[in-house]
Design a protein that fits this description.
Blueprint (H helix, E strand, L loop, with lengths): L5 E3 L2 H56 L7 H59 L3 E3 H22 L1 H4 L8 H21 L4
Antiparallel strand pairs: 1-2
Helix pairs in contact: 1-2, 2-3, 2-5
């Protein structure tokens, strides 16, 4: 049977292990703070967009209906207003879906990263108190701890790698459709002021 080997727990070794833990927990905190900021920024952008779009809808609808007394072709006017308001509503729904999808994606990424960081944090929390309170420590247990840290680091690096991020999606495809309907709707409204009903 092989004799158990021990390492002497010196102040230098305690300082080394403590610095590993401190640096890791500082990084953990920074990553979680960055993800929280991303979530908050996306939320505020969605609120700001919704507010601005609501004002825009009100202005467009207001201009159209303010001149209703001068309309010479009511069906053309109604088609134009329906196209304008419909395209604006469709835009609101699409942009909301994009922001919601991005927010969900950021939240899921934060949760995955949190689990990986939490696992490594648990390693430190279980190892450091035992290590610091010992005069001698099992070399195999120390090497096992270092190996588990390296494995956790590989998982964290893999999570942050470009492979995990996936290709960027182009979510702007609906804009051409919207622009076309805005132009057609505006055209119908303009025609309603100059062309008599046939």
């Amino acid at each position: 049977m092989e004799e158990q080997q021990y390492i002497e727990v010196t102040p230098e070794k305690i300082e080394l292990v403590s610095s590993w833990s401190s640096e890791f927990h500082k990084l953990f905190s920074e990553v979680m703070r960055a993800h929280s900021k991303d979530e908050k920024d996306l939320f505020y952008k969605l609120v700001e967009f919704t507010y601005n779009l609501t004002i825009t809808v009100g202005v467009i609808a207001g201009f159209g209906f303010a001149g209703f007394g001068y309309v010479r072709n009511v069906p053309s006017f109604m088609i134009g207003e329906i196209l304008l308001i419909g395209s604006i509503v469709y835009t609101v729904v699409q942009v909301k879906n994009i922001y919601q999808g991005n927010l969900t994606s950021v939240q899921k990424a934060r949760e995955r990263k949190f689990k990986l960081f939490e696992e490594k944090s648990r390693l430190f929390r279980s190892f450091v108190p035992k290590f610091v309170s010992s005069e001698k420590f099992s070399a195999s247990e120390f090497n096992n701890f270092r190996q588990r840290l390296e494995n956790a680091d590989r998982e964290i690096v893999d999570e942050f790698s470009a492979r995990k991020q996936g290709p960027e999606k182009d979510e702007s495809g609906f804009l051409n459709f919207i622009i076309l309907f805005l132009i057609i709707g505006a055209g119908f409204i303009l025609l309603s002021f100059v062309v008599d009903c046939i």
